[in-house]
Structures are given as C-alpha cells and as structure tokens.
C-alpha cells in the first residue's frame, strides 16, 4: 500500500462518491467499439447510487475503497458466492472461489500504487472468506488491465461474454490461487 493511500471497507456514506467514481472509470475499461450510450446504460443499471447501496448491504459482496486526501481514488468489489455463469464455472480450477467483479482507479492516480494496494486488500478479503482462488473477467481488448492482472498473479483460464448496454463483449476469464 502506498503511504498516502488508505484502503478500507466502503460504508453507506461513500455511496455518492463511489457511484461517481464508477461512472468516471468504467468507460476507461470499455473496448473501442463500445458506444457512450451503451456505457451509460451499464452505468445506470449496474453502477448507480442505488445499486451501490444494495451492494454494501449485501452479505454476498465486499466493496473496498482507496482513499487519499479524503477523496475516493479507487475501489474494488468482490462477489463472495460461486459463479453462476456456466462458461466461468467450467473454466475455473479452484474452489471455493471469489470473483473480483470491479477494480478501478481514478485516471489521475494511475501508476501511483493504488491498484496494487486495492488488489492486496482484495486478496486478503477473499482469503478471509476461505477461498482457494479468485477470478475475474477482463475485456479481451483491455491490454493494460490484463497486464496488471497478470503481474498480480492471474492467468487466463477461459472466456466468457459480458453485456454492456446492447453490446455483447468478449472477456477473458482469469484466475489465481490464494
């Protein structure tokens, strides 16, 4: 963890800032063919303040935030249940498992070690829930994110589809042991 970055569990008071951060960072991970309308549809349906409030209230999710100077600069979300997507379930080799559903850092803070701090904390949460492995999906065109995940010990074990608005995107399924 960087000296100026604190990672902690998100709390209800974080919801407005968390949703704003998610709306800013999600489009950065979208493939070039993704339209602003499709991105906005996803943000509205999955990353709204109401959805984040429900994620924080759910015992099946863990949301971590990175804070710097009193502002949220990154976040992760873990899904603590078995995958329901048959492509994912068929690709994974480690059980029980936890999904790293979201991992985003404000673009002004890229390269500052915040993603690494969030990853380390996320891995600790997954281990604390008794997981043998952790998995994630990353768009096949997002080379930057894939390189970060591979440096973090993940490797490609399969593929899956991910819907953004009206578009069906192709993701790699990555997994790492804990």
Task: Please give a quick description of this structure.
The protein is of the alpha+beta class and 178 residues long. Helices cover 34% and strands 33% of the residues. The chain has a 7-stranded mixed β-sheet, sandwiched between helices.
Describe, in plain words, how this protein is organized in 3D.
The chain is α+β, with helices and mostly antiparallel strands and about 180 residues long. The protein has one domain: Gcn5-related N-acetyltransferase (GNAT) (Aminopeptidase, 3-Layer(aba) Sandwich). The protein has helices spanning about 15-25, 35-45, 50-55, 85-90, 115-130, 145-150, and strands at about 5-10, 60-70, 70-80, 95-105, 135-140, 155-165, 165-175. A hairpin with a 2-residue loop joins strand 2 (about 60-70) and strand 3 (about 70-80). Helix 1 crosses helix 3.
Protein traits:
178 residues, alpha+beta, Aminopeptidase, 7-stranded mixed β-sheet, 6 helices, 34% helix, globular
How many distinct beta strands? 7
The oligomerization state is: single chain
Beta-strand fraction estimate = 25-35%
CATH structural class: Alpha Beta
Residue share in helix: 25-40%
- The chain-level structural class is alpha+beta
Helix and strand arrangement:
Elements: E1 6-9, H1 15-25, H2 36-46, H3 49-57, E2 61-68, E3 71-79, H4 86-91, E4 97-105, H5 114-128, E5 133-139, H6 143-151, E6 155-164, E7 167-177
Parallel strand pairs: 4-5
Antiparallel strand pairs: 1-2, 2-3, 3-4, 5-7, 6-7
């Amino acid at each position: 963890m960087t000296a100026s970055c604190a990672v902690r569990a998100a709390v209800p008071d974080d919801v407005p800032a968390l949703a704003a951060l998610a709306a800013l960072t999600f489009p950065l991970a979208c493939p070039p063919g993704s339209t602003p309308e499709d991105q906005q549809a996803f943000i509205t349906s999955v990353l709204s303040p109401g959805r984040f409030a429900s994620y924080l209230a759910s015992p099946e999710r863990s949301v971590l935030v990175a804070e710097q100077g009193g502002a949220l600069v990154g976040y992760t979300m873990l899904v603590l249940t078995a995958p329901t997507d048959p492509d994912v379930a068929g690709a994974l080799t480690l059980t029980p498992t936890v999904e790293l559903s979201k991992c985003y850092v404000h673009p002004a803070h890229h390269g500052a070690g915040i993603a690494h701090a969030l990853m380390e904390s996320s891995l600790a949460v997954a281990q604390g829930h008794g997981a043998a492995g952790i998995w994630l999906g990353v768009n096949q065109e997002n080379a930057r994110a894939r390189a970060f995940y591979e440096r973090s010990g993940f490797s490609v074990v399969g593929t899956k589809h991910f819907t953004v608005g009206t578009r069906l995107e192709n993701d790699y399924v990555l997994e790492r042991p804990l």
